[in-house]
Amino acid sequence: MSLPVTAKVPFGGDYNPEQWPEPVWAADDRLFELASIDTVTLGVFDWALTQPAPDVYDFSLLDRIVDRAARQGRMICLATGTGAHPAWLARAHPEVTRVDFEGRRHRFGQRHNSCPSSPVFRRLSAELARRVAGRYADNPAVVAWHVGNEFGGACYCDHCAAGFRQWLRERYGTLAALNAAWYTTFWSHTFTDWDEIEPPSALTEHWRGPDHTAFQGITLDYRRFTSEAMLTNFRDEKAAIRESSDAPVTTNFMGMYRPIDYHRWAEHLDFASWDNYPPEGCSPAWLGLSHDLMRGLKGGQPFWLMEQTPSMTACRDVNPLKPPGVMRLWSWQAVAHGADAVLFFQLRAARGACEKYHGAVIGHAGRADTRVFREVAELGAELRRLGDASLGARTPARVALLFDWDSWWALEMSDGPSRLVRYQQVVLAYYQALWDAGVDVDVVAVTADLTGYDLVVAPALHLVAGDLADRLAQVAQRGGSVLTTFLSGRVDVDGNAFLADVPGPLAPLMGVRVDEWDARAAEVVNPVCLGSGADRFEVASRLVFELVVPQGAEVVGSYRADWYAGTPAVTRNSYGAGHGWYVGTALDQAGVSWVVRQVLAHHGLLGPYPDLPGLETTVRVAPDGTRLLFLLNHGTETVEVTATVAGVDLLTGARTEVGRPLRLDPAGVMVIRG
Questions:
Q1: Mean pLDDT of 265-294
Q2: How remote is the C-alpha of 311 from its chain's centroid?
Q3: How far is 172 from 180, CA to CA, in rounded Å?
Q4: Has 307 been annotated as catalytic?
């Protein structure tokens, strides 16, 4: 099973007509036509409407909504409605609500409020999915199924404790194996009965929050269990849908979302989709990394941009407005990185509750002459002109960046050397360097096939398991390069330190050993001198300073201060026909970019315009072999470049010729079909 079959990039988003009287629906239909809205996501939070009592199902309202959308010729992504359970369910079965990290049983309220291990929740959510799918499976307007909504959170109730113990039995087989993995001889923690095991929480192994745990192995496994428990909920509903429908099934991910290991979910989704709500002030590379991560979940298969705001969010203390052109720019950036759908939350603004000020295509007044509506309509017209040109197109990347939830979890719960190191920031620094250089990147799991890449970048690869070290060595053996950083190769699959020199199983490839490591406050800077001769220059390094001892590697950069001044900070090791690069400290962005460009230049991988900040270039190749070159100007100034391909800009119809100038205004976009 793959992506929904569509004639063009679906354009639309979440629509909740159940929140308004029916006369509003007719007004919305007219506005949808003006904006080229052809796709609606329906029924995301309809459980209380479609099942108002334990043994009562009422689809009359949803019937009218679905029928109307179908008659209007719109494609439907139909949700199972299980994103939040109804009040009657919490009253009849209080055990369905979650127990939080502090041990408090929650009452009915909010969303993300269901215990994933609750037998009642599992049974009733699957039954609702079964009935929804059975009722609408034959409607040709339904092109995809949407299970739940933004899965997340954790529960620490008795059901989850029992589920965790069963999960551990299946994982370890014996208590002896579990005790060895968890290093329970420490602090008299040896378990002699499965029922002695408790979920790690504020009442058991933790202090000062979820990242401070006495036993990293226990907490690491509970995070794996929680992710898989919610995956079981998804699989329950998907199985129920499959009883009557073969249409593709998805759920909306949230990009770089720490609580759930999306790589372990990926094989169970027919196609990936995600909600793009970037943090305030993030760089365009943050969005690119998130898109590439989503594309990498299914081996490069395109994804759906399931949600983005057309204007502002409403869930933060301060919610800035997207300036003119940014919504269009970010939408095209999603397409450039692999999106085969551009959808919004929300199509009409809610009148009440916590999302009444969340951005919407149609505001409370229902006007068509607002800036936001005009920009959405213009984007809709552009996507209509694009047609099917980008559908199914893939990214021909020769660079892979490893993104690993196990390393993320293990690193950030580690007591030492520094709690100031944040996995996402380290990864983003290296992706930023690749993005600035105009390089197409596949962001992939540590289990991915690496044979097609010239460069594999593995920042903060803290946890190394299975045959990963061997597969990385094979990249270098055949002439490729592997680049990794400080705090890599430290622990095994259980979170226990390797009984070997750091960086553990990566040491032969890197040609170094790390005897000691220093950690300082964020304001402490140790300059690092990079390069040699006339090309030498200094950059800053912070947080962690590993004392690297070459074991065959050559020194590329050295510390300039403290008692270890003059010792290596960056090294390059010849391995087979290729190289292993090791960066032993948190270089500033200039330092990271210098190192990354050394490797890219060696392989001839620099993009067409690597020296123009803010100008993004990506390539997608359609199933028929047609190449699409995307150019996006994220800067505040107009840029002019020389065309590197001859073709047609699919957004304007203008022709390009090799060597002729191309001009992009701020927030400008070109899609050149070569």
A1: 97
A2: 21
A3: 10
A4: yes
User: Given a cut of 90, is residue 535 above it in pLDDT?
Assistant: no
Place of tokens 């097609």: 452
CATH number of the domain located at residue range(s) 11-156+224-386 in this protein: 3.20.20.80
Which residue is listed with tokens 């003119």? 324
* Amino acid making up residue 61: L
216-242 and 175-182 are packed helices; what angle lies between their axes, rounded to 10 degrees? 120
68-71: list long-range contacts, CB under 8 Å, 24+ apart.
68/17, 68/25, 68/29, 69/15, 69/40, 69/42, 69/141, 70/139, 70/140, 70/141
Question: 155 a known binding residue?
Answer: yes
Structure tokens at 444: 């992939």
- Each residue's pLDDT tens digit, 219-261: 999 999 999 999 999 999 999 999 999 999 999 999 999 999 9
Give, in order, the Cα–Cα distances in Å from 378 to each of 70, 112, 322.
24, 35, 16
| 399-603, CATH topology level | Rossmann fold (3.40.50)
Element (H, E) at 78: strand 75-79
pTM of the predicted structure, to 2 decimals: 0.97
Q: Catalytic annotation on 657?
A: no
CATH architecture type of domain 615-673: Sandwich (2.60)
- 149 known member of a binding site: yes
**Annotated binding residue at 115?**
yes
Residue-range domain boundaries for the chain? 11-156+224-386, 158-221, 399-603, 615-673
How confident is the model at residue 1, as a pLDDT? 61
Structure confidence at residue 390 (pLDDT): 98
What region does 215 belong to: left with phi over 0, alpha with psi -120 to 50, or beta?
A: beta
Asked whether this chain's domains 399-603 and 615-673 adopt the same fold, the reply is no
Q: Which of 18, 127, 228, 307 is catalytic?
A: 307
